[in-house]
């Protein structure tokens, strides 16, 4: 799953723009992940602040 | 929002505002929705813009100008500084804006022209009819309503989700997003009339550090790097903190500004049946500077004009709206986007040593007009030793 560190997220939308499947949605200061996330990690790479992390399913 | 408009604009940035204003001035019934709670905030911008570019759209207003810029300074990786003076600086000199006020003023102009404006109203899906976009479902305060429109303008910025919902791929490749962090700093020693750009793989790989004045001792200090260079420990925030520690250790941070800038090619197609895509959503920010304000306003105005024409002729098909796509692509802006994309692709391959040579060479040139094209053309002429390096560019120019 995609872990969003809400204390770090700057809700800028950079991750939304690079998501290959359009799984991220930003509403004001709240970023959410929808069902289509493939855990590819592109969003975590692009994040200016390091707020996203792909965690193992467990 | 009313249930029906001629033109529905999704997004209240400078592009959306220009589309709405232009269409409203032509007598169209226009609605504009902005998902955030306020126009202009939070700022996602370094706020620099060319002077003549703004004047193409309106009279400059001191209320939204934070600083007037007379010169630009390029700092090579070795620390060598070259100043581009007004006589040669051309469109690269201008204003550092107060985007909070600027954006609000633009939306006010659209509203004054007759457009309905609603903030905290978010498009959640297009209304699709026979494969054509016919408006959007708008969520506001917990309720979703249908807002029908003959033409819908996707002006939703870097996120660009609306066009994606309409079936147009807008995802930016990781290597072509500039991931950025900026501090609004005060109490720092700066030249209040100069924008300063620091180049180099140590300070900002495949990007640059900028210092854009906002007053005598206040500036936007930021860094953008390529997404492909961004990892834990080397994110733009890390580069910015290192830069600030070295250059402005006593400065104080009043605001964080965070964001992504697309530096890819524009979308292959910026229209569909009943849909026009503009600004950052269409990926028309400048690939070298990342500047997108003018580009959004230019495409926004053209979208408003084209939509008005199409509606007047009773044909809002992709075929009719292609006049917009062709219009911006064949404009000066469209041509410079294509050229600057190729130049950017070359620049990002340069080592610090080559960047040093470039900046030293530029400083020895007598430029009548400072532009990316001018600099590269002059480089080829003046420094034969760079010719080999620049041969990749010669076909472009």
Features:
heterodimer, A: 58 residues, Alpha-Beta Plaits, two-stranded antiparallel ribbon, two-stranded antiparallel sheet, 2 helices, B: 397 residues, alpha/beta, FAD/NAD(P)-binding domain, D-Amino Acid Oxidase, Chain A, domain 2, 3 domains, 8-stranded mixed beta sheet, 7-stranded mixed beta sheet, 34% helix, 28% strand
What does this structure look like?
The complex is a heterodimer of chains A (58) and B (397). Chain A has 58 residues and is α+β, with helices and mostly antiparallel strands. Chain A has one domain: Alpha-Beta Plaits. Chain A contains 2 helices and 4 strands. Chain B has 397 residues and is α/β, with parallel strands linked by helices. Chain B folds into 3 domains: 179 residues, FAD/NAD(P)-binding domain, CATH 3.50.50.60; 114 residues, D-Amino Acid Oxidase, subunit A, domain 2 (D-Amino Acid Oxidase, Chain A, domain 2, 2-Layer Sandwich), CATH 3.30.9.10; 54 residues, no CATH class. Chain B has 12 helices and 18 strands. In chain B, the strands form 3 sheets. In chain B, strands 1, 2, 8, 9, 10, 11, 17 and 18 form an 8-stranded mixed sheet that branches. A 7-stranded mixed sheet of chain B has the order 6-5-13-14-15-12-16, sandwiched between helices. Chains A and B meet through helix 1, strand 2 and helix 2 of A and helix 5, strand 12 and strand 16 of B.
Number of helices of chain B: 12
In whole angstroms, how far apart are the ends of chain B?
A: 48 Å
Helix content of chain B: 25-40%
Termini distance of chain A?
A: 9 Å
Quaternary organization: heterodimer
Query: Which runs of chain A of at least 5 residues are low in confidence (pLDDT < 50)?
Result: none
Helix/strand/pairing class of chain A, anyone? alpha+beta
Summarize the structure.
The complex is a heterodimer of chains A (58) and B (397). By secondary structure, chain A is an alpha+beta fold. Chain A has helices at residues 14-18, 42-46, and strands at residues 2-4, 24-27, 30-33, 52-54.
């Amino acid at each position: 799953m995609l872990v969003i560190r809400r204390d770090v997220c700057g809700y800028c939308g950079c991750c939304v723009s690079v998501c290959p499947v359009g799984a991220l949605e930003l509403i004001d200061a709240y970023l959410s992940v929808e069902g289509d996330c493939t855990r590819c990690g592109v969003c975590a790479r692009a994040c200016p602040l390091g707020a996203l992390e792909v965690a193992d399913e467990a | 929002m009313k249930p029906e408009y001629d033109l529905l604009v999704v997004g209240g940035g400078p592009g959306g505002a220009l589309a709405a204003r232009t269409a409203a001035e032509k007598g169209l019934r226009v609605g504009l929705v902005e998902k955030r709670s306020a126009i202009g905030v939070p700022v996602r911008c370094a706020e620099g813009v060319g002077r003549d570019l703004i004047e193409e759209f309106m009279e400059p207003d001191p209320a939204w100008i934070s600083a007037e810029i007379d010169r630009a300074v390029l700092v090579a990786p070795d620390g060598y500084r070259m100043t581009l003076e007004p006589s040669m600086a051309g469109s690269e000199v201008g204003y550092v804006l107060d985007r909070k006020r600027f954006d609000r003023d633009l939306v006010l102009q659209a509203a004054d022209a007759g457009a309905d404006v609603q903030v905290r109203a978010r498009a959640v899906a297009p209304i699709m009819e026979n494969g054509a976009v016919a408006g959007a479902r708008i969520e506001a305060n917990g309720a979703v309503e249908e807002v029908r429109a003959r033409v819908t303008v996707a002006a939703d910025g870097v996120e660009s989700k609306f066009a994606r919902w309409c079936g147009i791929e807008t995802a930016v490749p990781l290597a072509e997003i500039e991931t950025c962090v900026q501090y609004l700093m005060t109490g720092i020693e700066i030249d209040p009339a100069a924008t300063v750009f620091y180049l180099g793989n140590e300070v900002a790989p495949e990007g640059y550090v900028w210092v854009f004045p906002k007053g005598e001792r206040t500036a936007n200090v930021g860094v953008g790097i390529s997404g492909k260079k961004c990892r834990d420990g080397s994110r733009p925030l890390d580069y910015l903190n290192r830069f600030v520690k070295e250059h402005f250790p006593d400065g104080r941070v009043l605001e964080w500004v965070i964001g992504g800038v697309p530096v890819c090619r524009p979308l292959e197609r910026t229209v569909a049946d009943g849909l026009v895509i503009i600004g950052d959503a269409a990926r028309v920010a400048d690939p070298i500077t990342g500047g997108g304000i003018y580009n959004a306003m230019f495409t926004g105005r053209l979208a408003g004009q084209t939509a008005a024409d199409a509606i007047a002729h009773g044909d809002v098909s992709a075929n009719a709206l292609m006049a917009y796509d062709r219009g911006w692509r064949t404009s000066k802006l469209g041509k410079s986007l294509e050229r600057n994309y190729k130049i950017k692709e070359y620049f990002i391959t340069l080592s610090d040593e080559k960047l040093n040579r470039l900046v030293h060479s530029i400083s020895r040139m007598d430029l009548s007009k400072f532009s990316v094209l001018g600099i590269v053309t002059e480089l080829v002429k003046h420094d034969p030793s760079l010719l080999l390096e620049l041969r990749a560019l010669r076909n472009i120019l």
